[in-house]
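Entry:
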Amino acid sequence: MEQIEIEAKPRQKTGKEAAKRLRNEGLIPVIVYNKGKRSIPLAVSGVDLISALHTSAGGNVIINLNIKKDKKLQKKTVIIKDIQHHPIKGDILHVDFEQISLTQNITVKVPIDIKGEAIGVKRDGGILEHILWEVEVECLPTKIPEKIEVRVDSLEIGDIVHVKDLKVEEGIKILNDPEEPVVVIEPPRKMEEEKPEEEELIEEEKEPEVISEKEKEERIREKAEEKEKKQQEQ
């Protein structure tokens, strides 16, 4: 896993106004959290931070913060915990970092990448339903996969790829339910057949049934016999 170096400086003031002034200077306010220890407010270059986020590791990039304080350099290895964006512009407003050790397991979310075209889609007209887009994994920071690939070329209609079918390297543990579906190949959806308007009009315009005099007399006689039979039964 690639590691990125970013310069950081301590923040003397916190709050909305102080954060706004930093952003006007091209800096992003950040906080480093460390379990059981006091959090550290810092500021980093917005350009450097965006550059780090655009590596192949994405949001799981490992960052080495070089903190300059009182002419001393302190280094902290962190991973992004949360990013706050502007609701309209999308600009990064604030970032929470979590300090980590490269020798201890951490829990992160890793995206799932679908590769290939399922035979059930290509040949039989089925539909590929991508249900699960990321999984939670536990591993050393240096072993975090950029993504987990799923090959679907051989999948036919009705086939399902579950979490338990995902392939990861040794030392990486997927924490999701093993039976949770990732990809399903559904049968093609049949369009409900509708009668053409012309056919409906023809049915509406059908002439009433024509009964001959002989058939009419026959029906009257049958009804009379049926009525007489009912009266006798009573």
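The first strand starts at residue 3 and ends at 10.
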